[in-house]
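Hi all, long-time lurker, first post. I run a small reading group and we've been trying to get comfortable going from sequence to structure in the token notation. Rather than ask abstract questions, I figured I'd post a concrete chain and ask someone more experienced to write out its structure so we can walk through it together at our next meeting. Sequence below, copied exactly:
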Amino acid sequence: MSDVSDQEWKLLRYVYGDIAYEEPHNHAAMLVGARESVLEEYSAGRIAARKAAEVLGLRDSADLLVVLGDAGLPMPQPPEGELREQASTFARLFRENKEAKPALSAEMPE
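-- Answer (accepted) --
Happy to help. Here is the structure in token form:
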């Protein structure tokens, strides 16, 4: 059996599943690939920050962003449909707020 920590073993099992048991002589190389894989999954938005930080043994999402930057990967972005929905909601709220201001100032005594 290879000499890996409990956290490293968790990472190996997350990425490689049962193959991790069958390849103890490759654990060092597998750990490098596993870390890259988790960071790429997070960068692509396929896993949440909390899960990525947990699997990588990081303290929080701030540490995750540092590791992501060190790896030269971009921060994850929401899907395009979600961005459009957020922009639409912002525009609607902005218009409603703008329309509400004249009504409020007309009601306030001078």
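A couple of things your group might point at:
The longest helix spans residues 80-107.
The helical segments are 6-16, 19-22, 27-43, 49-56, 61-70, 80-107.
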